[in-house]
Design brief:
Chains A, B: Pathway: Cofactor biosynthesis; thiamine diphosphate biosynthesis; thiamine diphosphate from thiamine phosphate: step 1/1. Chains A, B: It catalyses: thiamine phosphate + ATP = thiamine diphosphate + ADP. The structure is a homodimer. Chain A has about 325 residues and is an alpha+beta fold. Chain A contains 10 helices and 14 strands. In chain A, the strands form 4 sheets. In chain A, strands 10-12-9-13-11-14 form a 6-stranded mixed beta sheet, sandwiched between helices. The first copy, chain A, has a 4-stranded mixed beta sheet with strand order 5-8-6-7. In chain A, strands 1-2 form a two-stranded antiparallel ribbon. The interface between A and B is large, with 72 and 72 residues. β5 (about 55-65) of chain A pairs antiparallel with β4 (about 50) of chain B, so a sheet runs across the interface.
């Protein structure tokens, strides 16, 4: 029988995390995480210690729950690792910063395949490597339900871009793919595995990691990452800034495969773009259209008042994802 | 009917987190968390931003799982909050540092009482206030099993004290209560609620938050917090330092109620001290007995070799807690 993993050559392919044991598994997991030069103390002690030269740290945390945020039959362990990392890296991106360090906690059933745990860690580490961030610590414990807890630390080179700085007259702009992951999730939910591009976008989002810092440098007045739906996040931005936001549907890019899915399901493909999350696009406001950096496109406007409209009218239909 | 909580006066006492709704509940939770002066951006944006003047950050993360680390019928929501915070604050303590900021993620079933969630947050905030730390962010999501994910950030005034610095000839020393929580957990497991002092020690540990920084100032060579059992943690320290450790039972304080429990259950009360965790005592090594700061007591010695002995002999019986 082949081994569960080259890192644990004595374990058979179907070995569980309980078979591996806590400390051998932690050792194997930790060996997958390369440490950057800023890591003074890495995994293995009571805490990690990081050098911080910037005078500040940006921090955010997110939970990822099996059956709620992912299904093991819809995405590989590596995919889930990529996604769990991406949604946290995106929170720093949305402040105009860049992540440098993460911790990851894994609460896992005893019968979780050890190959899944290591695959998850490989995907997680690979996503972090895209921005040069290190996984500096973690926790492993037993649970009935598989839960991943991630905390990300990062830094900004400019002043952090908050949700609260949008002003009437600003231009609303979007960076990154939007609606793709929602389309992928929808077809998976109907039992299909295509269009492939959408399913892959759901499994491994590609957040625009350069767009956040670029927006901060360009003077973005407010920014949020689109994790729960474009209109929902626009609503958060409008509420925090005390402004009204209008989204123009003719300015939204509707990816070709979304048209195909919309036609097959009898749905308006624009709805994926308006209500979809999980791509981790960025939504920001800028003082004027001329200040948009590369990768950003104008999709609406900011005015006096409150709330979000679509093409100047109130929107009927879902705006995003609700957790309870 | 009385309200679930003064913060949510329109909800009845038996309201669930699903009744409260995600954003009202997050608003109520966030209002419980006071922000220190170092918090430049607190809860409510994509990420928090903290001022860091020390040039470094200490970071650790821990998961707390219902049914595994706590039972709602054995401890109040406030107790679970205290405990979840304490075990994380303790990880920074064990580096010789002090925590300044925490994030907390709550994965909760839809039928979790909103009063539980707010009670948990109050206990969590109260424990953090003991060291002056702020809860700067969090996440709330739905799950089948109640899981709490905490990440703590802190700073050291001296060089961080690692697990790996113990040398032959060092004195092994302990700070804080040890064995109390294990005694409390044992009687709860047998269906008893007394001795009260032990049950309370299990519900709300009292980590010696001043002892970690004091040990660092006094030149401690290695340190670990006793979360999984005194002998188990001594073993981690011995392995990381490449030394042998001997624990002297005649130097261990065995609290009076532990004698009572031992007599009632026919168990050696010293076993609670040797194998118990959850008090979050600190175990450290110092160059000599004269360097022990107040609150620390010598409990053994460091020698050449490897492994842990008790009174010079190998120990039969449990050494601590295993997660898988």
């Amino acid at each position: 029988m082949p081994a569960a993993d080259p890192l644990l050559p004595d374990l058979p392919a179907d070995a569980t995390v309980a078979d591996a044991g806590e400390f051998p598994l932690i050792g194997a997991l930790a060996s997958l995480f390369e440490q950057g030069e800023h890591v003074l103390v890495g995994p293995g002690d009571d805490a990690a210690v990081l050098r911080v030269r910037t005078g500040h740290v940006v921090v955010s945390t997110d939970l990822v729950v099996e059956g709620r945020h992912f299904r093991r039959d819809w995405a590989s362990a590596e995919d889930v690792g990529h996604r769990a990392a991406a949604q946290n890296l995106s929170d720093v991106n949305a402040m105009g910063g860049r992540a440098h360090s993460l911790t990851v906690g894994l609460a896992a059933p005893a019968d979780l395949p050890v190959a899944w745990a290591l695959g998850f860690a490989r995907g997680f580490a690979a996503e972090c490597a895209q921005v040069g961030a290190s996984v500096v610590g973690g926790d492993l414990t037993r649970s009935d339900q598989l839960v991943v807890a991630v905390t990300v630390l990062g830094a900004c080179t400019e002043a952090p871009v908050l949700r609260s700085g949008a002003a009437p007259g600003d231009v609303l702009a979007l960076a990154g793919r939007q609606g793709w992951a929602a389309g992928g999730l929808t077809v998976l939910g109907r039992g299909f595995r295509s269009p492939r591009a959408l399913v892959e976008a759901y499994r491994r989002p590609e957040p625009p990691y350069d767009a956040g810092p670029a927006a901060a440098r360009a003077g973005a007045t407010a920014m949020v990452d689109v994790s729960d739906g474009l209109l929902a996040e626009a609503g958060h931005l409008a509420a925090a800034s005390g402004v009204a936001i209008d989204v123009r549907t003719d300015a939204l890019e509707v990816a070709e495969p979304l048209h195909a899915v919309g036609a097959a399901l009898g749905a308006d493909p624009v709805s994926f773009v308006l209500a979809g999350g999980d791509d981790h696009a960025l939504l920001a406001t800028f003082p004027d259209a001329a200040s948009l950096p590369p990768g950003w496109r104008a999709v609406g406007s900011v005015g006096e008042g409150s709330g979000v409209t679509v093409d100047g009218a109130s929107h009927e239909g879902p705006t995003g994802w609700t957790h309870f």
